[in-house]
Design goal:
This is Glycosyltransferase family 9 protein. This protein has 13 helices and twelve strands. The chain is an alpha/beta fold. The chain folds into two domains: about 140 residues, Rossmann fold; about 170 residues, Glycogen Phosphorylase B (Rossmann fold, 3-Layer(aba) Sandwich). Helix 7 packs across helix 10. The longest helix has 16 residues. The termini are far apart.
Length: about 325
């Protein structure tokens, strides 16, 4: 009913681009951050607008340098989507890189009536610039680089943009030790991407074998702060600590910036560490599709994969200690190199 073909047009003549990023998380946003800088650098004639969640608006406006940010709540009604499309007005190109667009996405794009729609859902008629098959298996940052290529930018700088906050960094430094530090993030999205105490304990023990003088900073989220404080006490506060004042993703960025190295499960911290060029050990579940799109883009990264259990269930805690040790050996080898 709403999937009507876009009229199309010459991308060289595009003057206004709208990116739909209303479901983008912090990691997704960091991975695509260079798109805005490079488009601004090579096509200063283009107005760059973004739709995102309210809590992400500052990141796009102040740090990624977009012209206009439109906020959209998590579950907008059809009436609200129509009103949003009316507020945005005429657009030459919409970029929506959701793999399989839902009815509300399709309805919203229908209301926009943009000349061109660029997307990964090749099955839709309204997506006249189809990136699905063309970028299949590529890292998500490369999908955005491909979009830049289509806009006439052949060799974009794909370095991520990481915002800085000197005041928050000074506050964190008040709790920072004088020794070298490895930041360890045990928390990803969903229970299958969260390290339990036994896995964290094993990692801390293995780190101690290679770097006995280093301390481990256990990273937390507001809802895991008490658990992490308990873990630090049980693991020995002379070796393991957490930053009590850390509350936001910006604090997490500053912790990574202050750290000498990072260990993280598959989450935003992986991309933050990659963007800050920190030695990184990434812990991933065996998911070839996810890894090809969201692996760390860094020559300083080492990855270890958790195995599926006997029931075929994925969980980052399903890693043999020998696999951890081998990964850490390679990891610290890169740091020395």
């Amino acid at each position: 009913m709403f999937d009507k073909p876009s009229s199309g047009g010459d991308l060289a003549q595009v003057k206004r681009v709208l990116l739909v990023r209303w479901d983008a998380k912090i990691g997704d946003s960091i991975v695509s951050s260079f798109f805005f800088r490079e488009l601004r650098r090579f096509r200063p004639d283009i107005c760059i607008d973004v739709i995102t969640a309210p809590h992400m608006a500052t990141l796009y406006q102040e740090h990624f340098g977009v012209d206009n940010v439109y906020c959209c709540k998590k579950r907008p009604s059809y009436a609200e989507l129509k009103e949003l499309a009316s507020e945005i007005g005429a657009v030459d190109l919409v970029i929506h890189l959701g793999k399989h667009l839902k009815m509300k996405d399709i309805y919203f794009l229908h209301c926009l009536k943009a000349s061109n729609v660029m997307g990964l859902d090749d099955d839709l008629n309204m997506v006249n610039i189809k990136l699905g098959e063309a970028t299949k298996g590529r890292h998500f940052s490369e999908k955005f680089a491909y979009a830049l290529n289509l806009l006439g930018i052949s060799l974009p700088d794909c370095q991520y943009i990481l915002p800085e906050d000197g005041e928050r960094r000074l506050l964190i430094q008040g709790e920072w030790p004088d020794s070298s530090v490895i930041a360890l993030n045990p928390y990803g999205s969903g229970s299958s991407r969260r390290l339990n105490f036994d896995s964290v304990s094993m990692l801390v023990e293995q780190i101690g074998k290679y770097k006995p003088a280093w301390q481990v900073c256990l990273m937390s989220t507001p809802d895991t702060k008490l658990e992490v404080e308990k873990w630090c006490h049980e693991l020995g506060e002379e070796r393991v600590f957490t930053v009590g004042c850390a509350e936001t993703i910006q604090d997490a960025i500053e912790i990574v910036r202050l750290s000498d190295a990072v260990i993280s499960v598959d989450t935003a911290i992986v991309h933050i560490a990659s963007g800050l060029n920190k030695p990184l050990l990434g812990i991933y579940n065996e998911d070839e599709g996810n890894f090809s799109e969201w692996s760390p883009r860094s020559s300083l990264a080492v990855v270890v994969f958790a195995r599926k259990d006997s029931g075929g269930i994925q969980n980052v805690n399903n890693i043999e200690s020998a696999d951890f040790e081998q990964a850490l050996k390679s990891y610290f080898g890169k740091m020395i190199g």
